[in-house]
Amino acid sequence: MADKTKPEIDFIEGDAPDELVITDLEVGDGPEATPGARVEVHYVGVDFETGEEFDSSWNRGESITFPLQGLIKGWQEGIPGMRVGGRRQLVCPPAMAYGPAGGGHRLSGRTLVFVIDLLGVS
C-alpha cells in the first residue's frame, strides 16, 4: 500500500447519475469489507458538476478509520465487497450523499465523486 499515491479524479462527462455508481479502479486481494465493518481508508472527494475537490484524507497526511454505518449511504453501500488493497470510485447522487438541496450540509443537493483506497478492515 505504501506505493499508492493520491488519485486524480477525471472529470466525468454527461449527466449526473440518479443511482450509486461503483467502479473498481484496482481490485485488492486482502480481507473483504462487510456492511458492519470498521474500515481504514484514504480518499478524495470531488463535486461531480465542478470537479472541485472538497475533501481528501491525503491532504491531511493520514488515513482515517471509522465504522461504515456512521457514513453517508453511498459509502455504506459502496464499500462492502471491496477488498483491502483495492481502489474504488463511487459516484453518489444527493440521496446517497448529503440529501437534497437545502438539507443543511454544505454539500446537500450535490452529486459527489469519491476515490477510496481500502487500507484495512476490522
UniProtKB/TrEMBL annotation:
It catalyses: [protein]-peptidylproline (omega=180) = [protein]-peptidylproline (omega=0). Its EC number is 5.2.1.8. Signal peptide: none annotated. The keyword Isomerase applies. Residues 36-122 form the PPIase FKBP-type domain. Gene3D superfamilies: 3.10.50.40. Keywords: Isomerase, Rotamase. The keyword Isomerase applies. SUPFAM superfamilies: FKBP-like. One of its GO terms (molecular function) is peptidyl-prolyl cis-trans isomerase activity. This is Peptidyl-prolyl cis-trans isomerase. The lineage of its organism: Bacteria, Bacillati, Actinomycetota, Actinomycetes, Micrococcales.
